[in-house]
Design brief:
mainly alpha; 2 helices
Length: about 40
């Protein structure tokens, strides 16, 4: 859980130079990928 949260935060923070819309898209992609993995797992 904490590892995922850390990855999520670091993934989001890596895009600090991106616009807010790009951050949200990036965050949405990350979350949907994780949900996909959890559902398959």
């Amino acid at each position: 859980m904490f590892t995922s949260l850390y990855q999520l935060l670091s993934y989001f923070c890596v895009g600090y130079d991106l616009s807010l819309n790009d951050k949200i898209k990036r965050l949405g992609t990350f979350i949907s990928n994780n949900i996909w993995v959890m559902c398959r797992g």
